[in-house]
C-alpha cells in the first residue's frame, strides 16, 4: 500500500521555473521522449507553451500533494493517481487513461538473446553472475518497480534476487545502469528498452504476472489554468496524440480499462 507521507516527507523540489508557463505537466519518467513530442505537437497546434517536469510517479505525486505548481499529472500507474484523488489534489472527472505498456527484462550484453517470456524456470541469479545486480526502480514506491516486484513474486523469482537489487529513483535511471554496464540486467518498460540502443531485451513478462500497466492523466485541482489543462488532457486521447505515443512503442489502454 502506498504510504501517506504528506505530513512527514521532506521534499526536494524539482526544477520548476519561477514564472509558470501556460501549462506545466508533471509526467512519469518513462513517458519522457513521448511527452516531449506531445508537448511540441500541442504547442504547434495551440501556440501555448508546455513545461515538462519528468520523474518517478511517486516523487511527482508527493510534490503535487505538497503544493508544487502543476496543471496536469500523468502517472505510470493508477495507485498514485488514486492517492492524489483521495487527497483532493486532482480532479477525478478529468481522469483518462492515455496509454499502456509492457514489462521486459533487459541485458547489457548484446550477445544475450531474447528467451521469450520470463518464466518460473528463468535463472536470474545465473544470468546476473557472481557479483551482478538487477537494476530496478524502487519496488515499494515507483510504479515500474512495483510492477517488477509483483511479476517476480508471481513467478517465484523474487527471493532469489531480492538481495541483489540496484534500486533507482525511476525507471529511466534503472535503464541507464544497464546501458552503462553498471548492472548486467534490469527490469524496465518495453518503451524504455526500445529507446536505448545499448541494451537488449532478454525476455518479457507475461501480462498475467502483474496488473495492467496504464498511464492515467488528470488535471491538478489547484491548476491556475484548469480549462487549458482539461483541454490538454483530452487532447492526449486524440488520434494525433495516439500516433505520437504509438511511435514511441506505447500501446492503446484498451476499451473499458
From TrEMBL:
Pfam families: SBP_bac_11. Keywords: Metal-binding, Molybdenum, Signal. One of its GO terms (molecular function) is molybdate ion binding. Residues 1-20 form the signal peptide. GO terms for biological process: molybdate ion transport. Molybdate binds at residues 30, 57, 144, 171, 189. This is Molybdenum ABC transporter substrate-binding protein. PANTHER family: MOLYBDATE-BINDING PERIPLASMIC PROTEIN, MOLYBDATE-BINDING PROTEIN MODA. Belongs to the bacterial solute-binding protein ModA family. GO terms for cellular component: outer membrane-bounded periplasmic space. It comes from the Bacteria. InterPro entries: ModA, ModA/WtpA. The complex is composed of two ATP-binding proteins (ModC), two transmembrane proteins (ModB) and a solute-binding protein (ModA).
Amino acid at each position: 500500500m502506498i504510504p501517506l507521507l504528506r505530513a512527514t516527507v521532506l521534499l526536494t523540489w524539482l526544477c520548476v521555473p519561477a514564472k509558470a508557463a501556460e501549462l506545466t505537466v508533471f509526467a512519469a519518467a518513462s513517458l519522457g521522449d513521448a511527452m516531449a513530442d506531445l508537448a511540441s505537437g500541442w504547442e504547434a497546434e495551440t501556440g501555448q507553451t508546455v513545461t515538462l517536469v519528468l520523474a518517478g510517479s511517486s516523487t511527482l505525486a508527493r510534490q503535487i500533494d505538497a503544493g508544487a505548481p502543476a496543471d496536469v499529472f500523468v502517472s505510470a500507474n493508477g495507485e498514485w493517481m488514486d492517492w492524489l484523488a483521495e487527497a483532493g489534489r486532482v480532479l477525478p472527472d478529468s481522469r483518462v487513461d492515455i496509454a499502456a505498456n509492457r514489462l521486459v527484462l533487459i541485458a547489457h550484453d548484446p550477445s544475450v538473446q531474447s528467451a521469450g517470456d520470463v518464466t518460473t524456470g528463468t535463472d536470474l541469479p545465473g544470468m546476473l553472475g557472481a557479483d551482478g545486480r538487477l537494476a530496478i526502480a524502487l519496488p515499494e514506491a515507483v510504479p515500474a518497480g512495483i510492477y517488477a516486484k509483483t511479476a517476480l513474486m508471481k513467478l517465484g523469482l523474487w527471493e532469489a534476487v531480492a538481495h541483489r537489487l540496484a534500486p533507482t529513483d525511476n525507471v529511466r535511471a534503472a535503464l541507464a545502469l544497464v546501458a552503462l554496464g553498471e548492472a548486467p540486467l534490469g527490469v524496465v518498460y518495453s518503451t524504455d528498452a526500445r529507446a536505448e540502443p545499448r541494451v537488449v531485451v532478454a525476455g518479457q513478462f507475461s501480462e498475467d504476472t502483474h496488473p495492467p500497466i496504464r498511464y492515467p492523466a488528470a488535471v491538478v485541482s489547484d491548476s491556475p489554468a484548469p480549462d487549458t489543462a482539461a483541454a490538454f488532457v483530452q487532447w492526449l486521447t486524440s488520434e494525433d496524440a495516439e500516433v505520437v505515443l504509438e511511435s514511441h512503442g506505447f500501446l492503446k489502454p484498451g476499451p473499458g480499462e
